[in-house]
Amino acid sequence: MLNTSISDTLTGFSIYYLGLFDVQEGYPSRNGTFYILPSFLGVNVLTFLFAQFDRYFAVCHPFFYNRFMSRSFVIGICAFCWIYTYSILMVQNMVPISKAAQINAFGVMTLQIIVLTKVLMTIKLYIIARNQLGREAPSTERENKKESLRIIVFVVMCFLALWAPSFVNIIVRQLTYHGLKFRNEATNLFAILARFNALVTPALYIWGSPALSCAVWRTVWRRVCPKRKGR
């Protein structure tokens, strides 16, 4: 949750840059950020992918999950999402433009494959988890699994709903060269729609997790809006 919230928050802040300047990422670019800002999406997608693997093993292979899953392993996975994404980006910015364009095209194709994998895994995970959780006796662990599964499913559904128009337009442009083109990122309606994911994801986490909601209220809102002391 923290990894996706950080990447989504940074994506939200990037809107200010895109709105203030005439930004057009690509080859050639115009006032571009060397794909630093768009790469937050890559971190987000990888995190979602590993989160779905996490839920899959937790539901389908609980003994394996409890044996190998630890806090240090999760932290390592989160760090890998950032290191891998920006290592590829660093290489992309160091090679000639022709090679960089090829790497970028490969990255877009990989992103689409990951999104398709996420959709298939979400459907399979939902079916398996629904059947297994229905056979388990009521317990705290069972409720935690249901809560985590519900959050992941809702987050993925909202992610697909907000990013699908942009993905479809990219595919159409790559295959037919007739997709919609925009003057810059600030006027890209599909990109603006996708940026709302930065608000939706944290909101869904807070809504779907009572523990997180209480933690946010206790650590954030009570400090921002402290109660007035009685006179």
How are the secondary structure elements laid out?
Elements: H1 2-20, H2 39-60, H3 62-68, H4 71-94, H5 97-135, H6 140-176, H7 189-195, H8 197-208, H9 210-224
Helix pairs in contact: 1-2, 1-8, 2-3, 2-4, 2-5, 2-6, 4-5, 5-6, 6-7, 6-8, 8-9
The Cα radius of gyration reads 20 Å
* Broad CATH class: Mainly Alpha
Q: Approximately what portion of the residues adopt beta-strand conformation?
A: under 5%
Order of helices and strands: HHHHHHHHH
CATH architecture: Up-down Bundle
Number of strands: 0
Q: Domains counted in the coordinates: how many?
A: 1
Shape: globular
Q: What is the CATH topology assignment?
A: Rhopdopsin 7-helix transmembrane proteins
From the helix content, strand content and strand pairing, which structural class follows?
Answer: mainly alpha
Q: Return residue spans where pLDDT drops below 50 for at least 5 consecutive residues.
A: none
Largest sheet: none
Question: How many H/I helical runs?
Answer: 9
Query: What is the helix fraction of residues, given as a range?
Result: over 70%
